[in-house]
Amino acid sequence: MSIDPGFPVAEAAPAKVNLYLHVTGRRDDGYHLLDSLVAFAETGDLVEAGPAGPGVLDLDLAGPFGPALAADGGDNLVLRAARGLRAALGEPALGARLRLTKVLPVAAGIGGGSSDAAAALRALCRLWRRELDSVQLSALALGLGADVPVCLGAVPAHMAGIGDRVEPVAGAGLAGLGLVLVNPGAHLPTPAVFRALGGRFGAADRLDPLPDAPAGIIEALAGRRNDLEAPAIGQCPIVADVLALLRGTDGVVLARMSGSGATCFGLCPDRAAALRAAAEIRRMRPAWWAAGGGMYKGREAP
Ligand code: C5P
User: Fold this and answer.
1) Domain named GHMP kinase N-terminal: which ranges (predicted)?
2) For atom 4 of ligand 1, which residue has the closest CA?
3) ∠ CA 17-181-116 to the nearest 5 degrees?
4) Residue 232 belongs to domain with CATH number
5) Where in the sequence is the domain holding 138, given as residue range(s)?
6) CA distance 80 to 87
7) Across the strands, what pairs with 12?
């Protein structure tokens, strides 16, 4: 990646995919308890950071979905993460210029905003040469969103609690698989999908340990589910069309919705198959967003 001198620090914000997602209960505060296996795709946004005057926090938006975020005004997760980090450090005079290149569709179940917030926290710790201890950093992340803690590490992980309990898993068998992500352009607000679940909670069925062989992983995943898929389809039937198209596409061995939708993913035996599947889906549905690639292979060394 070439470095822009105005933004010397760059952090990838990879898409998060819930390979399965079981909703096992609800807390008194309305948040739901989850059992999920999360992986990260090579496809993602980019957060860059550079110096600015004392106390200044600026955000430039770029990329195909930049305009969709600009419409939200100033309260996006990258700026909230930056303000939160400054407050946690107790140094309000720290300043930064940030640039978010938005490749992932917004509010789409693939953790775009959460991964952006996590990448902003990592980028600003590097830019400012500051560290928060892991307890403080996790608390800050969770305050920004339930998916932000898992996005901080951006490695395959089991997620439990409301997203606050994150345990990285040895993901060697996952690493070679390909992912195709498909979003039909429909917006599904997360709280509405949880509400539509209406308290029909499922059992946790944690895939632990992860099988070593990719075929074993796919077989084990096929026996699991995303509990939010049916309520999401109830609210937004086009999600069923996305799943049907994925299931009928060459190279896709498993198709499922991610998070609260509307993005669905197809697992492919390898990266090349995922690239071919995404190209085929873009040809079939030019108005939909489809991206193929491998699993995210880790952050660049600082
Ligand atoms: O934390 P985040 O902002 O991503 O969550 C958005 C909304 O999704 C929450 O306000 C809540 O309604 C719902 N949610 C939930 N249980 C979770 C995560 C999110 O009920 N574990």
Assistant:
1) 76-152
2) 145
3) 55
4) 3.30.70.890
5) 9-168
6) 10
7) 46
Residue 57 burial by Cβ neighbours in a 10 Å radius (0-12, 13-18, 19+): middle
- Cα gap 41→273, rounded to integer Å: 14
Whether residues 232 and 151 share a domain: the answer is: no
Which positions are annotated as active-site residues? 16, 147
Alpha-carbon distance of 153 to 14, in angstroms, equals 11
The average pLDDT across 201-210 equals: 95
Q: pLDDT tens digits, residue range 75-117?
A: 689 999 999 999 999 999 999 999 999 999 998 999 989 999 9
Q: How far away, in angstroms, is 133 Cα from ligand 1 center?
A: 25
Q: Please, is 8 exposed, middle or buried when counting C-beta atoms within 10 Å of its C-beta (0-12, 13-18, 19+)?
A: middle
Q: How far is CA 177 from CA 151, 212, 255, in A?
A: 20, 12, 13
302: in domain: no
33 shares its domain with 113:
yes
Q: Please provide residue 252's backbone torsions phi and psi, each rounded to the nearest 5 degrees.
A: -90, 120
119 and 190 inside one domain = no
Q: Is the CB of 201 under 6 A from ligand 1?
A: no
Tokens (6 digits) for 234: 């109830």
**CATH number of the domain to which 150 belongs:** 3.30.230.10
Q: What's the CA gap between 232 and 254, in Å, rounded?
A: 18
The residue contributing the CA closest to ligand 1 atom 13 is 191
